[in-house]
């Protein structure tokens, strides 16, 4: 009787353990850390990038998604691009040994990708299939995970705030124009003193005699 009770108790404990949620800290869903790479965050300054990544092998200027950027190229196939403001707008990761959160790396399955970042539909971008995740509160920040069209495994990783569509590019341009057009509040309430300029006298027309 006691032996039977012991076996029953053990089975109950095993079943309870199996029912507990596994990997609670790695529950599906985006985190701010998903928009960073090797200690540098999307939107970081050049100084912050160099502090985290060190000096690049070289740099080049190119146009990505219609935006002129300076691309810093590092060993092991890492690239970081900054825009005219000097802030990071693009990470391109081509290293198959790089691991993101929860062990995500090139070759990861579609199941594991969505278990980590959440369920989403495949989208087409420039003819390729992607899982595209957008950072909450930052509509221009995207995590682009290229996937094999047939088998669904991870083929590329990119973290970017560059516009992905013409609509997003237009919206970004309008936002930039609005920011550049804002009047500095230090001068908004000040009037320009023109008293020292004097008053302009009306022009005197001289009669021209034949």
From TrEMBL:
<feature type="signal peptide">
    <location>
        <begin position="1"/>
        <end position="27"/>
    </location>
</feature>
<protein>
    <submittedName>
        <fullName>Uncharacterized protein</fullName>
    </submittedName>
</protein>
<feature type="region of interest" description="Disordered">
    <location>
        <begin position="166"/>
        <end position="210"/>
    </location>
</feature>
<feature type="compositionally biased region" description="Basic and acidic residues">
    <location>
        <begin position="183"/>
        <end position="193"/>
    </location>
</feature>
<keyword id="KW-0732">Signal</keyword>
């Amino acid at each position: 009787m006691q032996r039977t009770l012991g076996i029953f108790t053990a089975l109950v404990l095993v079943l309870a353990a199996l029912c507990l949620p596994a990997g609670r800290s790695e529950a599906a869903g985006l985190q701010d850390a998903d928009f960073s790479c090797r200690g540098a965050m999307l939107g970081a300054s050049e100084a912050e990038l160099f502090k985290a990544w060190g000096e690049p092998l070289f740099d080049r200027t190119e146009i990505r998604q219609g935006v002129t950027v300076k691309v810093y190229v590092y060993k092991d196939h890492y690239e970081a691009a900054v825009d005219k403001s000097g802030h990071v707008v693009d990470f391109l990761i081509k290293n198959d040994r790089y691991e993101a959160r929860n062990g995500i790396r090139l070759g990861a399955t579609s199941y594991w990708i969505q278990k980590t970042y959440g369920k989403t539909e495949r989208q087409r971008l420039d003819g390729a299939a992607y899982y595209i995740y957008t950072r909450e509160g930052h509509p221009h920040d995207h995590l682009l995970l290229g996937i094999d069209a047939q088998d669904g495994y991870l083929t590329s990783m990119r973290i970017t705030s560059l516009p992905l569509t013409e609509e997003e590019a237009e919206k970004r341009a309008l936002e930039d124009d609005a920011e550049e057009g804002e009047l500095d509040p230090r001068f908004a309430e000040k009037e320009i003193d023109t008293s020292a300029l004097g008053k302009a006298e009306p022009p005197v027309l001289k009669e021209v005699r034949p």
